[in-house]
TrEMBL record:
The keyword Iron applies. This is Cytochrome P450 4c3. Keywords: Endoplasmic reticulum, Heme, Iron, Membrane, Metal-binding, Microsome, Monooxygenase, Oxidoreductase, Transmembrane, Transmembrane helix. Belongs to the cytochrome P450 family. The chain crosses the membrane at residues 25-44. PANTHER family: CYTOCHROME P450 4C3-RELATED, CYTOCHROME P450 FAMILY 4.
Length: 504
């Protein structure tokens, strides 16, 4: 053995001896805690180094330690959406993926069908990201925010509620509230310009409340009611920093839902008792106007709880509130954008009018049937292209949080020629043939796609067709002049200003 090796061994022995002397001065608990921390830091550092190494292979802007890309993203709320889209165009157009650092947390942006499909089509990655946690105070763990087994169980329970036979029962609600909207718009005939968004929002709130809970709230007639203000007052999209006000809104929303659930359960219990006493020949429930009460989403949940599925009142409220949330603002945005775009393109609006004339003739009053709505094929193309240009946002976690950039995905020139143009012909059958199934996903895709997409399309057709049978729409603002806010839905900062005239 060489003298160098002997010297090295002696040095290690001395160090170990001194380390043992130092450790002997501490209690076993202290030694255990310090050792655990050291082991944790070593393991964490190893995993973190691997994560950083893999993430940095994805193109994206250089990040600062601890801050990440905070400087690049430090812009006004009005500018944030455009900044993110700009980064996507700069760094990710070649392979359909890029990354940014939110502090020390990486975010991967996906916007090509080939990069989106593995995430959305996965049966493993079905849990929502932590960005959805701020919805929990209102929605609890309903279908939108629930995870793992609870989500699978709820999805199975709720799927039958959106069968076409069930949806047919909702057509009358669509028609009645659309007719109210048309009457409300009459006051704007002759005005230079007005914001379409609030009118449509109140209409969809009336629709979703009656279809979800079987209760009319008359939002279009009384927009100052406590419940309407709680939903409509930007509760979700601009959560107030005032905790008391926020909690007041939540209490109002939950209080209304809980009251409706209790009352409806009591009504159904009385009906069941009458049925038992009258050999199942008891009359159906009727409302205050003597009309037969329609089946609501709430009734289907209550029935499910009777058939062996354990759903508490809280479980039912979570799903009713989720239906209210998902079926309100997203649908109003889709309707508003479609009407606005048709106002920008009178040639397409005229084609829709001709289609409606072929279905209804000169009749502007007869409500649409399910068959009528299904026959509105060109209007559906218009709605789909509107949803292509102005979709809702979807965030799906997969280890590192993956953000599906639907706005960019739907502007892929390989899929949609002249992608910035509104062109309903994109969705004619011959143009859809052979299209990648994940190239167009306004309702998301895969196992966590939107369960209510058929409901939404039917509602949008009913509302838009009712308006266009009575009015011509003319957009006042140019699309390129609008400031877009990328929130859970894509909304215009200053609304959508249009003019209307009665249709001859």
């Amino acid at each position: 053995m060489s003298s160098k090796v002997v010297t090295s061994l002696m040095a290690e022995s001395i160090l170990l001896s001194k380390a043992a002397q130092v450790i002997s001065g501490y209690s076993p608990i202290t030694v255990f805690l310090v050792g655990s921390i050291v082991i944790f830091l070593v393991v964490y550092n190893k995993r973190r180094s691997r994560l950083v190494k893999l993430i940095e292979k994805i193109p994206g802007p250089a990040a600062m330690p601890f801050l990440g890309n905070a400087i690049e993203m430090n812009v006004d709320h009005d500018e944030l959406f455009n900044r993110v889209i700009g980064m996507q165009k700069l760094w990710g157009t070649r392979i359909g993926i890029n990354r940014v650092w939110q502090g020390t947390a990486p975010r991967v942006l996906l916007f090509e069908p080939e990069t989106v499909e593995p995430i959305l089509n996965s049966q493993k990655f079905v849990n929502k990201s932590h960005d959805y946690d701020y919805l929990h105070p209102w929605l609890g763990e309903g279908l939108l925010t629930s995870t793992d087994r609870k989500w699978h169980s709820r999805r199975k329970i709720l799927t039958p509620a959106f069968h076409f036979k069930i949806l047919d029962d909702f057509i009358d609600v669509f028609n009645e509230q659309s007719a109210v909207l048309a009457r409300k718009l009459a006051v704007e005939v002759g005005s230079e310009a007005f914001n379409l968004f609030p009118y449509v929002t109140l209409c969809t709130l009336d629709i979703v409340c009656e279809t979800a809970m079987g209760r009319r709230i008359y939002a279009q007639s009384n927009s100052e009611s406590e419940y309407v203000k709680a939903v409509y007052g930007d509760l979700i999209f601009r959560l107030t920093v005032d905790y008391k006000l926020h909690q007041s809104y939540i209490n109002t929303l939950h209080g209304f839902s809980n009251m409706v659930i209790r009352e409806r359960k009591a009504e159904l219990a009385i009906l069941q008792e009458n049925n038992n006493n009258n050999n199942n020949n008891a009359p159906d429930a009727y409302d205050d106007l003597g009309k037969k009460k329609r089946l609501a989403f709430l009734d289907l949940l209550i029935d499910a709880s009777k058939e062996g599925t354990v759903l508490s009142n809280e479980d039912i409220r979570e799903e009713v509130d989720t239906f209210m949330f998902e079926g309100h603002d997203t649908t109003s945005a889709a309707i508003s954008w479609t009407l606005f775009l048709l106002g920008c393109h009178p040639e397409y609006q005229e084609q829709v009018a001709e289609e409606l004339d072929s279905i209804f003739g000169d009749d502007k009053e007869t409500p649409a049937t399910m068959k009528n709505l299904l026959d509105m094929r060109y209007l559906e193309c218009c709605i789909k292209d509107s949803l292509r240009l102005f979709p809702s946002g979807k965030v799906v976690p997969a280890g590192t949080q993956a953000i599906i950039m639907t706005y960019a995905l739907h502007r892929n020139p390989r899929v949609f020629p002249k992608p910035e143009q509104f062109n309903p012909d994109n969705f004619l059958p011959e143009n859809c043939a052979g299209r990648h199934p994940f190239a167009y996903i306004p309702f998301s895709a895969g196992p966590r796609n939107c369960i209510g997409q058929k409901f939404a399309i039917l509602e949008e057709k009913a509302v838009i067709s009712t308006v266009l049978r009575k009015y011509k729409i003319e957009a006042v603002d140019r699309r390129e002049d609008l400031t877009l806010l990328g929130e859970l839905i894509l909304r215009p900062k200053d609304g959508l200003r249009v003019k209307i005239t009665p249709r001859d």
